[in-house]
Amino acid sequence: MRAASGPSRAWPVLLDRAFGRDDITILRHEITRLLGVAGLAGDRLDGFVLAVNEVITNVVLHAGGRGRVVLRIDGGSVWCVVDDAGPGIPSAFLDRVRTPETFEVGGRGLWLAHQLCDEVTTATGPIGTSIGLRIGLDVVPDPR
Questions:
Q1: Is 140 exposed, middle or buried (0-12, 13-18, 19+ CB in 10 A)?
Q2: CA distances from 30 to 16, 27, 40, 53 (A)
Q3: What was the pLDDT predicted at 110?
Q4: Model confidence band, residue 5 (pLDDT cutoffs 50, 70, 90)
Q5: Helix 42-62 vs helix 24-38: angle between axes, to the nearest 10 degrees?
Q6: Taking the CB of residue 55, how many other CB atoms lie within 10 A of it?
Q7: Residue 99, domain extent
Q8: Could you tell me which of 46, 59, 131, 135 has the fewest CB atoms within 10 Å of its CB?
């Protein structure tokens, strides 16, 4: 439910597409471009793009190789939702407090997303996973 402060000034969806292994680099560049135009810049832009890259790479490596990414701006934040139809994320990788060991193989993607984003949401189970990444915009651009 939205506060009574007035209607939402949500942008339309900036990106909504299926992806696979061959799309990771293209997506990273496209997301960087779209968010730069929307006003995200500097370390926050780089960090958010890195977090998205880690999540989509996890889909390719661990969740059947294919997924869907949706990018939008709403309420002064950038939201990126990545969905897959994989087997779910093991609980050991969902603990954002646990810092991966130095020589541990894997386990850094979601941990890194939690470090770089203002909010990370995860819904996972045996029929797939949906991860939401949010970062606030310092200046809310006018969607007109």
A1: middle
A2: 11, 5, 14, 11
A3: 87
A4: very low
A5: 150
A6: 26
A7: 13-136
A8: 46
